[in-house]
Amino acid sequence: FLPNIPGALSRFLELFVNTGVNIIGIASEIRDDSGVVRVTVDTDKKISYILTNAGYNVPKDPEATGTIIQCEGKPRIGIWLMPDNQASGMIEDFVKFLVPEADALIAQACQCVADIKPPDWRFEPHLSKAEIHTWLAWQKSPGTPLGSAINQKYLDADCQHAKTLITWLSDLFGDK
Questions:
Q1: Which of 6, 25, 92, 116 has the fewest CB atoms within 10 Å of its CB?
Q2: Where are the alpha helices (DSSP H) in 80-145?
Q3: Cα(56)–Cα(49) distance, rounded to whole angstroms?
């Protein structure tokens, strides 16, 4: 994590330039206006402001397929905003995209979570975390971590959302 102070990312980038690192990938969460986390690729907002001050030309809006920006003599920067570069959310929202369409348990898990009433409702603003982890608890191996759920074939790594992320990673970290 970098502090949000003037010059922090510039110094970070210089460090990588001097060590031969030429690619930096940033994956971040976007949340709604609750103030919990708010990262946008907009010229007057956090990450883009820092990158602009470091000499990068940051697009006003994030690319739907992930943003990659280059600046002569500096590392290539990739930015992926969870869940899909468009909607507010977190990694669990992305994982929900990977749940197979024919899976009936995800709807039941979401309803189960929705049926919880205060004072037992303790997971705001992490609704999707509660939903996806409830769903994972109902799989053949309950409690499987998110990454392992792909290996267990609970999640569809061939769906369009997964392919879009994989393409962004390949475009960012591949030879260019």
A1: 6
A2: 91-98, 105-114, 127-137
A3: 9
Q: Using one digit for the tens of pLDDT, what is the confidence trace for 142-158?
A: 989 998 999 999 999 99
- Provide the whole-model pTM: 0.80
Q: Tell me how far apart the alpha carbons of residues 57 and 69 are, in angstroms, rounded to a whole number.
A: 7
Least confident of 13-22, 36-45, 140-149, 164-173: 36-45
Residues 6+ apart with CB under 8 A from 129: 90, 92, 123
Cis bond upstream, residue 59 (ω within 30): no
